[in-house]
Amino acid sequence: MESYVTVSGLISQFLVGLSRAMILFIVSSGLSFILGVLRVPNVAHGSLYMIGAFVAHTLAMAAGGGAAGFWLALVLAPTAVALISLAAERLLFCHLYEREHLMLLLFTFALALILGDLTKITWGADYRSLVAPPFLQGSVMVLGTPFPRYNLFLLAVGPVVALGLWLFSNKTKVGKIARAAAVDREMVGAIGINVGRVFAFAFVLGCFLAGLGGALVSPTVSITLGMDHTIIIEAFLIVTIGGLGNMWGALAGSLIFGVSQSMGILLWPQFAIVFPYLAVVIILTLKPTGLLKSVW
Questions:
Q1: Which of the chain's termini has less CB crowding within 10 Å, N or C?
Q2: Cβ atoms within 10 A of the Cβ of 72, count?
Q3: Rounded-to-integer distance, Cα 198 and Cα 178, Å
């Protein structure tokens, strides 16, 4: 097995794993943000990711494809997901925040089933694919290894999202209030702040990131029903090993998950799926509370 592993292949798979980790981070950071502020285990997060991918394809095709259609989809698809989540939060979630976590889990699971059926009714069961704009097609040489331009683009987007979330959480008034609400929501409400609006904003922002992840992944995978199942399992595992509600933990977990999965494909393709879950088992065995401090 080792004789087939070359330095070039190792570098290529490592970079592919990093680019995959960026998608995982964008989706997981949204889930982690919702968990941290609202204490809601949002199982419907994966369905919103799937809807983001379908909406991105629809918008890109409506705009005639090409670079303009891609950028339009990249902006408007997450926005559409954010609007859907805002309606769900204002009509449904805002009445349930004081309920037990199990009830919230069951509610979001039911919402995921509803969104899945609505997606099937709207787009059908056919596979779809979105073509990246011309300047993001093809490959470039990275460390002497050909690497897809689009994956390089993903490697740039991930840190930008991480920096944006950090700036929002630490440098803006709304972000600081959201962090305070995550620690003591009763005290935040007692000083006259509308906690309901803070929760709504946090939920919408987290869901926007799910839609963004769906739009970004569209040129790299088939857009189809069921793509939400895998991502929500992976996102919850990443949030768990990183530390519940910890954004940097979500980043660390995503890197571990993405790279281990990619290395597994290179080293032992038949059992590649085992590698990231084995990493999860090892981490939780050594540190059951996660890599970084949980906000729960």
A1: N
A2: 17
A3: 6
Q: Which two tokens stand for residue 44?
A: 């419907």
Please say whether the dihedral angle defined by the alpha carbons of residues 146, 149, 154 and 155, taken in this order, is positive or negative: positive
Compute the mean pLDDT over every residue in the chain, rounded to the nearest whole number: 88
With contact defined as beta carbons under 8 Å apart, do 53 and 220 qualify? no
What single string gives the DSSP state of each residue in 197-219?
Answer: HHHHHHHHHHHHHHHHHHHHHTT
Task: For residue 270, count CB atoms less than 10 angstroms from its CB and return exposed for 0-12, middle for 13-18, buried for 19 or more.
Answer: exposed
Contact call for residues 41 and 108 (beta carbons, < 8 A): yes
Q: Which of 227, 193, 224, 222 is nearest to 210 (CA)?
A: 227
Q: CA–CA separation, 199 vs 192, rounded Å?
A: 15
Reply yes or no on whether the pLDDT at 252 is more than 70: yes
Q: How far apart are the first and last CA of the chain?
A: 43
Give kind and range of the element (H or E) at residue 145.
Answer: strand 145-148
- pLDDT at 4 exceeding the cut of 70: no
Closest CA to 236 of 264, 210, 275, 199: 210
User: Six-digit token pair at 65?
Assistant: 């494809």
Query: Distance between CA atoms of 32 and 169, rounded to whole angstroms?
Result: 13
| Token pair 């300047």 in the structure block, residue | 135
Q: What is the pLDDT of residues 77-127, one digit of tens each?
A: 999 999 999 999 999 888 887 788 888 889 999 999 999 999 999 999 889
What number of other Cβ atoms are within 10 A of residue 280's Cβ? 19
Q: Which two tokens stand for residue 87?
A: 């309606």
